[in-house]
Fold these 2 entries.
Entry 1:
Amino acid sequence: MRPATLALARREGPRAEPRKRAWWTAFATLALLLFAGRAGAHGARTVTLNVEPVSATEARLLGDARLRLAAPGCSIEPEAAPVRVLRCPRGIGGQAVEALGLGESIDLVIVRVGAEEGSLLTASAPVARLPDAAGANASTALRFARLGVEHVLSGLDHVLFLVALFWQARRAAGGSLRAVAAELLRTSTAFTIAHSLTLATTVIGWLRVSTYVSEALIAASLVLVALDVPDDARAGGVPSRPRDARLVRSALAAAFGLVHGLGFAGALDAAQLPRGALALALFSFNAGVELAQALAFAGCVLVTLVLARRPAGPAREARARLASAYLVGVAGVVLFLSRVSALLRG
């Protein structure tokens, strides 16, 4: 090699190293991106299948609509949907549910049975076993009891109605918490029996009332019970009520209960009531409703105790009762007009 050529190579040597490092860096980055893309695609191929036993012979299957399922001796309807119903005439206890075609569009299925973590399904192990009837009944009771609590506490109309009932009972009882409890026991028992009656007859199919009509009637019940709350609240006194008034209040509570039961039944329309455990589902939902009522009344008692600790208790309580009555009444009027408007629009 000539001296000039050798000198040129020596000058370019240090420059070649950074270029090589840049090429290797770009290659490594591209490989990393390709690997990450494959990993992300693999993660997207993992789905969850939630199995909710609703009776000894039925279970709800919630998962990706692409997931194909089979269960020998049982039916799964519809075939491809986010929510499916598994029906097994001989019972779902120990029943095998198989995920078909794993490895095509889905690689891994995470199965959850009720609130418990189940199993992992892969192409080599695609079968899951369902719990027995005892586990199904427990899951049904828990699910519908929670639904009853959520329906009452999340509904403004139901909560305001319970608040008005509490103030009505406190005024009629003269302020004693023990007397208030006795008064609430009478009215809430009448309310419970009545709403249980319309709830059951509507769910069974013996009674059919438009949802718009029942919701408008519930709003009207708020207005009617609010009208009875203030009474002597402006004067701050407690009137003397005849014993017949207790029967009147219980009868009104029962009438309101019939209306609210229609609303409770409407909440169960989308809950897919189990055919084989209808009685258990209704009982559990009702138990959840009663628990929510007890929680609402407990909150009212707590507020009352806080007000009683401050000076000028009776007068302050009378103003609070009056303000609550206006709140319930105005809310009832607004809800009634909006629901009647929806009813007229069809």
Entry 2:
Amino acid sequence: MPVNSVTFSPLEALHAKLILVGPQGALHRRVLDSICSLKETEHVSAENLFRDEIERGTPLGQQCARAKASRRAVSDDVANAVLRRWFWSRKSTRGFALSGFPENRAQAVVLDEWLESRDEALTGCIWFELSRDDALAEASERLVCPACRCTHYPNREVLLVPGHCDHCRTALVADGTNARDEVSTWFDHKARGSRSVASHYHDRGMLVSMDASGPVDSTLVEFASSVRSLAVDR
């Protein structure tokens, strides 16, 4: 369930454009739920875009599938091509929360160039700080909805109907093994690149670090305040 709407309502008019960086987890999902409860704001997951390419059997999808099978990151050329399609098809006035891209400084520079070419401005980059052990412990509890693919963390949130998806009420299934694999992959292959992304936006005064191990609701309040501050600075 999203944080109290009063907390996020001041963000409604911002149409904030955010990059979310760090290992996936309950806080990440709750932030996305809250952002996506706002009008004219969308969550864009690079992993979902890659998965769509794979399911459609496109040439880009075949390259994504090979990278996934070998537990490697999708190459810059492929990632840029997939994300370029999303970026140039969206309304420039819509806000977004982008996760999974950019994954390194080179990709961040490409995204900066895309934004500049459309006279758009990134609101900021949110860095979620979480240790490997904490991230793995949290991942082991993850449940997934087989219908809408939403993820839930019963150890960090209260489900409206225990054992069922908050969005479509489908019975949830355990997904801890996949979640732990994703976290391990992030720390083993993506953490260094993600830190370079954080450094890139830190140098531009656009980075906010969040402690993802703390209480979810209080951190969401801090998140909303940080986004408002970044928007004012822009």
